[in-house]
Amino acid sequence: MDYWVLRVLSYTIVISVVISIIRFRVIDKKFYPIIFFIWVCFFNEIVSDITAVIFRNNAINTNLYHLLFTISLVSQFHVWKVLGSGRRFYFLIVSAVFFVWAITNFYFSNLWVFNSYTYLFHFILIVFLSVRLLGKNPFANYGFEMGRVIFLFCLALTIKFASSILVEIFWIYGLTSSDIFLLNIYGIINFVNLVFNILLAIAVFKIPKKREYAWLSRE
Prior knowledge:
By secondary structure, the chain is an all-alpha fold. The chain has one domain (about 5-205). The protein is built from 9 helices and no strands.
């Protein structure tokens, strides 16, 4: 598949961005972390293209992107109470994410290098939390309307990051040394991203509106 076609496919996340902007004022605040995740994904696509042209290296923004999106998704799972009702476990996971990211980027390596082991940690964590929530039957625990949206988000995240785990394993073990194989992998990942972006767009469109509370008089 042509390179520019693949790049256009990667930008299909703009659909979710546009929907989220249009619906932002009515979207339930419980979904703000994943809305932030969507915006970060879109912004990273733009910055990646710019840094790739200017510096021939988009590792810095990619490394920062991984930290931001992982914390935002962990925050979303905390809102959905996958990590329990308390804050202790949430802060523990966020601290672990930041510690692993910092030590790999500033001690074992640097921000100018892609750190596959850090990415693997992030991907495995997100897939684990997504599968854990799906296993709890969101329809039964959150009601049909909210459960439908949570199901779509978790399905999208599982598909995207499970495939990303495989790609990072290919990179670690040098299985992408062939240019043809690398191009095929890139094509598959962009197809997965297309499916991911379509599911995201549907989920964002279906996010429930804010609850309307009775107006309380101050008299």
